[in-house]
Amino acid sequence: MILITGGAGYIGSNCALELIKNNENIIIFDNLSTGHIETIETLKKINPNLIFIKGDLKNLKEIEDVFKIHKIECVLHFASLSVVQESAKIPEDYYQNNVIGSTNLLNAMVKYNVLKIIFSSSAAIFGQPKYLPIDENHPKNPINPYGKNKLEIENILDDFDKKYNLKSIKLRYFNVIGANRENLLGEWHDKETHLVPNIIKSAINQKPFEIYGNDYNTKDGTCIRDYIDINDLIEAHKLAYLYLNKENKSDEFNLGIKQGISVKEIFKTVEKILNQKIDYKISQKRQNEPSILISDSSKTNKLLNWKAKTPLSDSIKSAYQWELKLQKKSI
Ligand SMILES: NC(=O)c1ccc[n+]([C@@H]2O[C@H](COP(=O)([O-])OP(=O)(O)OC[C@H]3O[C@@H](n4cnc5c(N)ncnc54)[C@H](O)[C@@H]3O)[C@@H](O)[C@H]2O)c1
Q1: Residues enclosing ligand 1, CB less than 6 A?
Q2: pLDDT at 288 over 80
Q3: Residues that are catalytic
């Protein structure tokens, strides 16, 4: 059985769906702090045998009980608080939830001799880039508590490998966008902070979209990021799982598409795809944000045999269809 922490959230649920389609037996463990029960219901319609446990990683006993009762072979660890700005406002909650929560998970795994994990890390571990694109060897100097949490967990994973032989694959996502191709599951955060869904929400609700800062040191003054489609990202998880089973060694991979796109460029692309002018205003730059993040995914391409396939326009179209569904509450 595969245990998915955070499987009621955006990325974890999309991964759960793919595993269900591949006839894997899965258990989802989630405290529903940012995830949604409706997401679990959608997954249960596809596989009624899916096991969902409402539990919190901050509670050691709750996660230990999962391993005590079920025979788990591997863990996919998505559960996290993950809003950069919020992490600077309430760092104590972030350390507690992300670092302590992950340590509880790892302790439970070791106790029950489950020694394989795939961990959702982030480009935030790198901080301000020293060079671009960012490969796996790039120095790691996170500039916000969220990025520091992720790096700390990566370090703990390495120590658990040395001491307990626990093997981990760390996948450092850049910016994930889009919805699943059948429009069953997509990005759903009650306080949405991500670019693409927020531009789409502005378009649908006819409210001005806020661009945070146009004085970054970039070609048009807005932040540049590397956007990876959710379906391509999930494919990378499947390949990482195979790699982990075959090689039985710890490793790390950057997951982006080696293409930097500015906020303004994404905004214009959304306008074009929706065939709609969207109002916008320029607000103050957000603190703790690097101006450019672009992934060098050569290692991922080579060792995992992974390639991004989805064009940006398809990701935006799927995000739009999903947002319509979300707004009509027809989940
Ligand atoms: N979305 C992105 O672009 C992006 C980029 C880089 C990294 N990541 C990482 O990917 C992972 C998934 O991100 P997402 O966008 O799906 O987030 P999400 O908020 O949609 O999902 C996270 C899930 O984890 C659950 N959770 C949080 N704390 C928990 C706890 N203590 N115990 C049990 N469950 C808990 C939440 O309820 C939620 O369902 C996170 O680790 C995030 O840091 C995401």
Answers
A1: 5-6, 8-12, 30-35, 56-58, 78-82, 97, 101, 120, 122, 173, 175-176, 189
A2: no
A3: 146
